[in-house]
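Objective 1b of the project was to move from sequence-level analysis to a structural picture of ligand recognition. The entry below was assembled by the postdoctoral researcher (A.K.) and checked by the PI before modelling. It contains the amino acid sequence of the target and the SMILES of the bound compound, pyridoxal-5'-phosphate.
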Amino acid sequence: MISTVLPTYNRAPLAFTKGEGSWLFAEDGSRYLDLGAGIAVNALGHAHPALVAAITEQAQKLWHVSNVYRIPEQEVLADLLVDKTFADTVFFTNSGTEAAELAIKMARKYWYEKGEPRTEIIAFEGAFHGRSTGAIAAAGSEKMVKGFGPLMPGFTHLPFGDHEALRTAITPQTAAVIIEPIQGEGGIRTLPDACLKGLRDLCDETGALLILDEVQCGMGRTGKLFAHEWAGITPDIMMVAKGIGGGFPLGAVLATEAAASGMGPGSHGSTYGGNPLACAIGATVTRITADDAFLLEVNRKAGLFRQGLEGLVAAHPGIFKAVRGQGLMLGLECVVANTDVVKAGYGQHLLTVAASDNVLRLLPALNIPDADIAEALKRLDATALAIA
Ligand SMILES: *Cc1c(COP(=O)(O)O)cnc(C)c1O
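Corresponding predicted holo structure:
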């Protein structure tokens, strides 16, 4: 008989009852070191005191009001994000998928309002933008779209990081290009800064809008508040989610005034998006992660972790091949099946996440203590020894 929970996940036989910093406590009371952080969601670890305070305080005042009213908590967070980024305006969602939907709608509406019927959007192989019908059409991979057709038309898929293919495919008919600066589900594949710059140039030459999906790589994950800052470019539209809520459902679409110019009253909406509870938490996360001293610490911790991982690759050439990624968005290319490493990790009470390209994803809390980084390296070493 089918389980009462729709079986769309291959779940590990683990359940947790409590979290504290980088640790999760299982039903039997034992603790696991969490290098997945809810897949880059728990950016400040579990039960961060400032987030517990923010949610508690707001929960006692007001959870939800309709977007037919002004929502001051939403305005505070929007002001913060606009202050810290390229953006002039923000729409709040409950997830990354919803952010993808709006990003696509916004780009098409921009061209519609200009009286130029551009609808084509260029996307990339290995991409992940969510699970809605629009987001799977954008990603285009067979494993995500098979059986769900007919798909939303208008997407062209190019190899990730292939500048020549992009130069050929992008035309004055292209409405937008959508890309993750670092592919997460795709296997921690980093787009070199030069490619992102080249992409920005091609968009400028053709007028195509640049949509960056920073749902996984944003909010300080790479050591800058947003990953595109490393390349010194800015997008026209950006999707944010995961880390911005620190574990509470929250997403956002950030845009320049020009890119957002088609989105007037009635053009989009959300019942829950930007509710006071989510925005109070989001503002707390954003204040903490956007702080320069905090980001410096992310970079220092990342250097420490990465150095240790390079040592692991050298020590276990039969298990690990190389380290990839940036900041605390790291991947270990595996020689053995990455899913076997994830499973063996459970035996060492270590939580990691698999990704495409046979990569083991390591996405710890951005404030992981140095001692927990040392413990993570110890447990990864023990995991490799257990497989060998
Ligand atoms: C997780 C993810 C999404 C989808 O976000 P949800 O909150 O699961 O809807 C979109 N894009 C990227 C890059 C992601 O990692």
